[in-house]
Hints:
Strand order of the largest sheet: 3-2-5-8-9-1-10
Order of helices and strands: EHEHEEHHEEEHEHEE
Largest sheet: 7 strands, parallel
Number of helices: 6
Pathway: Carbohydrate degradation; pentose phosphate pathway; D-ribulose 5-phosphate from D-glucose 6-phosphate (oxidative stage): step 2/3
Organism: Larimichthys crocea
Family: Belongs to the glucosamine/galactosamine-6-phosphate isomerase family. 6-phosphogluconolactonase subfamily.
Oligomer: single chain
Structural class: alpha/beta
Enzyme class: hydrolase
Helix content: 25-40%
Domain Glucosamine/galactosamine-6-phosphate isomerase: 14-230
Number of strands: 10
Amino acid sequence: MAGRRVVVFPSSVELGPVLAHLVTSRAEKAIVSHGRFTLGLSGGSLVSMLSKELLAMPDLDCSKWVVGFCDERLVSFDDPESTYGLYKSQLFSKVNIPDSGILTIDPSLSVNECAEDYTCKLKKAFPDDDFPVFDLLLLGMGPDGHTCSLFPEHPLLEETKKIVAPISDSPKPPPQRVTMTFPVVNSARSVAFVSTGGSKAAVLKEVLEGREGPALPAARVVPTNGELFWLVDEPAAASLTIQVERLVSGAKL
């Protein structure tokens, strides 16, 4: 696949700083190019890794960042399941990103209204694009191969028109969520998956090396005009037979 780089690190300890540098380098490039940096975030273990490593970067300037969420759970912001809530406490409250630069859901709405409201916020933030073109999306992958809140064999995998879709029957709790769709994900200038731990080894092999039957959701992330990174640690990469790059801390992408 053109443009895909699979990069393996000894452990997540070495991966983290390289991820943070990828974010800041793409931010600098975007700000020079078009005056701002648009970043889509995912939850899970990515929150603590990214927050820790970005805060360790010298002279971090987020004043021209616009941040959205690749998916979000329909819970209040003080709920421990809220991805925005976690980033607010661990990262946003400690950097100079303007409040107007953080695009959040409205958790007081029904799941359908919430998706429509978030669609409007993204359209306002990206007025010139049919589908929002983010400079960088950071994605995770579940042990079932899902990414964002796009789950295997779910009808949302075939969505082609909506920017943000509601989901009321998530197989992973909480059941109500909103998620970016594949047209948005695949419009991004850069996409980086972060996948660590031995529990991901089998599904990572399926996603990166192909499988019989329908492609898993994470395998359907193929940016149309962008770059695609898979940043993984040795335990997650244990079953791979494809050619990979191996980097250590201090390396740059």
